[in-house]
């Protein structure tokens, strides 16, 4: 363990209190964290990936602060959408969701999102879901409807609405009915389905359990997977802001209703990626997939880099020009990094302290990134120390500096460099400047360092 952990406290914005709070986990050195993962029914759009890149950066910051992080991300492989779409394609649910799971995992890798401790599939946790629902039935917070479905009675749970900060009056007015669908908005504050009794539309998707023949509702899935893997009380739960209601509100109701304990200490949510100032969404048909970006020559890491330029709690508007500019800037950073040569020195303590301080302030990635540029430009640092410091920062950024390979310099450029070396030895600076211009015009940059000339691609 290094002393870095004590450089600055971690402050995180908690949606539950609408405040930045001091972060202190339940166990001293370990953080238990859950991320609501994708519904594997099609290709996620790049807006979705903001949720996973945000969770990844958060985890990396915690690890950078020397915490051990136990991280679960679920894969929703049974819900209204997966059933509907698999039927449209005339495929079995398992085969259908497995395909999109594999596609998701490819994107995760391309975006340098570190694998969680475990990816969990909802269909592997039906028993745990049934166990929680039975507890809720026995303590009077849930009831069976005429068709055998089980609903959560929100009026019986006195803290209902604490995360989404729903007005109680509003709740009373609207809470007269039940809602069967997995997704709905605040106009439908109603009793929600924990267990959906089988009906014809579900086809061959059902489980025969103590609750009868049927399938779980979406919300209970995350409560079950979180509790089964991380325990009844955890530190952090993440998702996009549209998960706050109803999904996370319902997770709290079910989990706390069943255990009587505080389910999650810090609820954290990323803001939206917009297109023309409107949320990127499948339903608005204004979305791009990672494949769309790659087809336009955009490196997935340029998208990651673009997101890091904004705080996760600000909305960002997607425009191609901005992504292209981000890609140019990232390539420039890569090239400057490669120009630092092969030696790795030591991490600059002051920069590292500042870096930690910025990130520990609710993940201020824009400031942390500007520090990266400061390191590159610092005239008082050796190239070897710059290299070590950038590699250290990249543990959080995940931009792949360590994997960069110096491109081989073409022979004609090498000859010009040698010629320039000779001109400098002859103190013919006019000639040396001319040769520098020539090298620049061919797309290469030359830097004079105490160790000699260094060449890199512009
Ligand atoms: P879904 O598959 O709809 O459950 O979405 C997966 C994740 O992406 C959730 O955490 C959502 O909150 C998040 N999300 C969806 N749309 C956007 C968007 N336009 N910008 C940022 N996050 C989003
Ligand atoms: Zn979830």
TrEMBL record:
Family, according to the entry, reads as follows: Belongs to the class-I aminoacyl-tRNA synthetase family.
- Would you tell me the protein name for this molecule? Cysteine--tRNA ligase
User: What is annotated about its quaternary structure and interactions?
Assistant: Monomer.
The molecular function GO annotations come to: ATP binding; cysteine-tRNA ligase activity; zinc ion binding
The family database entries (Pfam families) matched by this protein are listed as:
DALR_2, tRNA-synt_1e
Q: Which PANTHER family match?
A: CYSTEINE--TRNA LIGASE, CYTOPLASMIC (PTHR10890:SF3), CYSTEINYL-TRNA SYNTHETASE (PTHR10890)
Question: Which BP terms from GO are recorded?
Answer: cysteinyl-tRNA aminoacylation
Kindly list the positions annotated as binding Zn(2+).
36, 222, 247, 251
Short motif 'HIGH' region, span: 38-48
| Regions that span the bilayer | none
Per the annotation, how and in what number is the cofactor bound? Binds 1 zinc ion per subunit.
Q: Record the organism.
A: Candidatus Nomurabacteria bacterium RIFCSPLOWO2_01_FULL_41_12
